[in-house]
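ok trying again, last paste got cut off:
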Amino acid sequence: MINYYGNLCTKMYEILHPYVEEEELQFYLSYAKQNKKILEPLCGSGRFVVPFYEKGFDITGFDMSEEMLKELYKKVPNVKSFKSSMENYQPKEKYDYIFITSGSFSLFLDEKNVENLLIKMKQSLNEGGNFVFAVETTANVVYDKQNYFENNSVKTEEGYDLVFKSKSFYDEKNKILSTPSIYELYDENNLLAKEEMDFRLKLYDFGELDELIFKAGFKKINVFSDFNKSNNLNKNSKMFLYDCYI
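nice, full thing came through this time. structure:
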């Protein structure tokens, strides 16, 4: 399962990331305005949708993971959201602000898919709206780890042990970092469930996306290397934050 959050993966995600870091939240909130429509594609279990909703913003989210959306509905049953992949998403409404967080933009691996994503986001924006997103950079390269190693182990609410193992490979030509992963659920030494995932990220160098962004119809780009929007752009940052206007 490539770039999909399944049941065990979602469980671990919820345990390790119950809340968004305040600095990151404030960065995305800084673009939001009351009485303006907001869209969060790839919203997952609602780390951002929930605090936006609780602050009274008109926000809609969508995600392809049914498991993630179930967690979202547990937190906010009446939240506006729907199930869709980015490939199947067809712009029907217009929004004033769209954002994709946590480097999820990097889950789209080839240039054509990235171009289509950017075009859909532009088509979904009202005039004067902006699209804000983060990408992982080539500073995140991990040297190949051929064998599975344990990254994390957590306790579930039922008292079971949930273990995450992974290995990694880097395709230097295409700048794609692959992380085949295994999630295992144990009751002491008894294996209850197992889930295999394969996460792949497209890593970017500084300026690599600019041409595609303008080609999609955006008129202006601001790029930051941290959530403080500092003027001193660090081209070796592990993250680039794009603020795109139409």
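cool. The longest helix spans residues 111-123. DSSP finds six helices and eleven strands in the chain.
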